[in-house]
Amino acid sequence: MASALETLCGQAFGAKTYHMLGIYLQRSWIVLLLCCFLLLPVYIFASQILKLLEQTYEVAEQTGLVAVLLIPLHFSFAFQFPLQRFLQCQLKNQVIAWVAVAGLVVNALTSWLSVYVLDFGVVGAAVALDISWWFTVLGLFVYSSCGWCPLTWSGFTMQAFYGLGSLSSTLLPLDLENWYYRILILMTGYLKDATIAVDALSVCMSINVWELKIPLAFFAGTGVRVANELGAGNGKAAKFATKVSVAQSHVVRCPLSFLLAITILLNNVQPILSGVAVGCGWQAWVAYINLGCYHIVGLPLGILMGRVFKLGVTVDSRRNFLKFRILENL
């Protein structure tokens, strides 16, 4: 949902209406914080929900425990992701990178201390995540609000409470792709030898997420650049930025294609086109395409192959190809 700021802040920065970036940032905090409260029961009652879905007792209990411990992490999302977009739109990517590195160091230290030294197990790992993510939020907020962004941050303002309805409609097109992958992992719990199936798919998805960070970086960069150029009235420059990003993504995808075959090939270009759409303010189109390709096409295919044809966790990439073609034509 925070990706809407790439459109709003990006175009405002390109149009040199700098004060609006801080207002958009604060409005997004309010809307996303309210969404966090709405989603809070899912974290609190995660164990009961999974039991109703007939997941194994042990998995449901452990998941419920971790979900409650990750509630602070859940609320940190409402602040960190808008702060990242706020700074990206001002081309302050190095700041985000250095704060992320510091957060990684904090996470490594707290994880080692809580898991290996104090032997808190998965509880310690969850608490370490909470600490490191809030450390990142604090670092980004201090940089944004303590004088390093004088044009775009002028302090807290009551204007942030106006226009929340229109902002909510811009934020609401969700990233249904992430939901798709989480549902897939949940579905594997019903397969034969569920423990092995869940482990295998989780490892596969983890590798995919690591690899996906590269095209997601292109997604963010392309979205910001396209929004900046459109805000400044430079349509040709926006088209050129799109071509450069797609070309670079094609080069990067080749060394990575052996990891997850065709899925990697498509995932390296697909986020670029999504970024262009976000930069143009077409979040609704991206949401509809994600809904159709992942949930109307992808999930039924997964159920069909996993439950009917007994193919287990075999990866299918046809919904990726479909989404790629739709975005390319858009």
TrEMBL record:
Assigned keywords, A-Z: Membrane, Transmembrane, Transmembrane helix
Keyword Membrane: yes
Record GO terms (molecular function): antiporter activity; xenobiotic transmembrane transporter activity
Record carries keyword Acetylation: no
Membrane-traversing stretches: 29-50, 62-83, 95-114, 120-143, 258-279, 285-309
Coiled coil: none
Entry GO CC: membrane
Domain of life of the native organism: Eukaryota
Alphabetized InterPro entries for the sequence: MATE_fam
Membership in a protein family: Belongs to the multi antimicrobial extrusion (MATE) (TC 2.A.66.1) family.
Protein name according to UniProt: Multi antimicrobial extrusion protein
